[in-house]
């Protein structure tokens, strides 16, 4: 045995059949933290575990690498001194409705407070949500100031052009019966498919029907809140909101094949302006890269679009994705409204999105939506016309004309060598 592998015990520590007598009960949707109980996904004291999977979403795999390499002790416990949220969120009535929130732990930011006695007694209970403050600076906001569309007020927007925000990072915590209900399948089928399609990664999905909560190894969400976070739950305060799905190529690197970054920065501008009017703003950013298909699939689709006969036309936009991925979209907005309910939101006055899927999910979950704000035409990159026209024809909201079949054939993007 090498020095590397000798660091870990020689026996495999299975979780699949050991019902932990010391695991505290977890009653999803119970009205108080004490009645609900803590989410314990520790890999340390196995008997305490009351969920399937472990913390940190996809980063749990890196944590395993850190243990395997000897960089991290598996016994390490987080010192939560001074880590508490900068702003208290909730509790809201939605937290006590087991069907309103099924994909995050509403008490996830408050564990160091609400489960302090259990932590003091040695339980490894970790926050799944963290709330902090930030200043965000974007060239598009600097341009909006230069052109006079936005004005620094020293409160929402500093003299240096930075937007003052509260931001929250949210890790996924799934209540499997609730997730199954959202997708209209049985819990047994959901568990079996999750097990099989991850290559059998979590045997407890099929062996431990008593464990109803799963910490899936996927990306989470980040919330950027403009103005007072508590005002988000007040339907009389104007709320400007965008729910945005990650598109690294556009969001970060400015790739011009889609409208993601310009729409995102437009939403941030609208959030700042709305907050300066006395409202509040929210951008909820979900790690669902490339319609949750991932970047490899996304780039394959780009090539297939641009190499097809007749070039990259809007009428073939969805077909090319479906050819490569088998579906048009894997984002499935069914779980997206949970984070809005965590924030206590009951009304969005201005939804900065044209997506009918997002709109339907939000309104279907009981949140009222007033105005829908489209991306201004002048912000659409030329090569992204293909995408936006295809989406409008497929049902995306537009205050203007919906492109017909002829128009879609005539919307052609740049070639690969252009
Ligand atoms: Zn994009």
From TrEMBL:
Residues 230-373 form the GTP cyclohydrolase II domain. GO terms for molecular function: GTP binding; GTP cyclohydrolase II activity. The keyword Cell wall biogenesis/degradation does not apply. Residues 1-18 have a biased composition (Polar residues). Residues 1-32 are annotated as: Disordered. GO terms for biological process: riboflavin biosynthetic process. Keywords: GTP-binding, Hydrolase, Nucleotide-binding. It comes from the Bacteria. The keyword NAD does not apply. Residues 11-197 form the GTP cyclohydrolase N-terminal domain. PANTHER family: PTHR47259, URACIL-REGULATED PROTEIN 1 (PTHR47259:SF2). This is GTP cyclohydrolase II. It comes from Mycolicibacterium murale.
